[in-house]
Structure of Competence protein comGD:
Amino acid sequence: MKRNRANKQAGYTLVEMLIVLTIFLMVITITSVSVKPFLQQLEIKYFFKQLQLDIAYSQMYAMGNYKDAFIRFYPENNRYVISPNGYNQKIIVDRTYSENIKIKLETLPTKVIFRRDGNIEKAGMMHVFHHDDAYRFVFLFGKGQTYVEKL
């Protein structure tokens, strides 16, 4: 007697499919949990890098145009702006940052001024909070040098 091979189907059983889906979901869950802290770390790293670049830019603007450059911080709006010579001047840079980042100006005034020679008018410090982490961002006297340290 010949068996009909047309009725024979090759495939996966329901149990095999459920096992594969369970493993797949476990891998996705583990990956998504481990990516979140990495993205938070990138967010604060990017913020500090961008701020330091903007500080260098305002210093170069002051020296290149022979005008004072102002960096004004608006912590309540998660924003800072760079403009030349005062309040009624056009804004050169208007930068917003993540709502996860909070700035508390300690000894740093809300208006940081770079003089025409590239030196900062007044050194100071601010605290930056990001999720559960705290950082100290310091403006030093001299040619716009800054540093960040984790508290």
Strands lie at 69-74, 79-84, 93-96, 101-105, 111-114, 124-130, 133-139, 146-150.
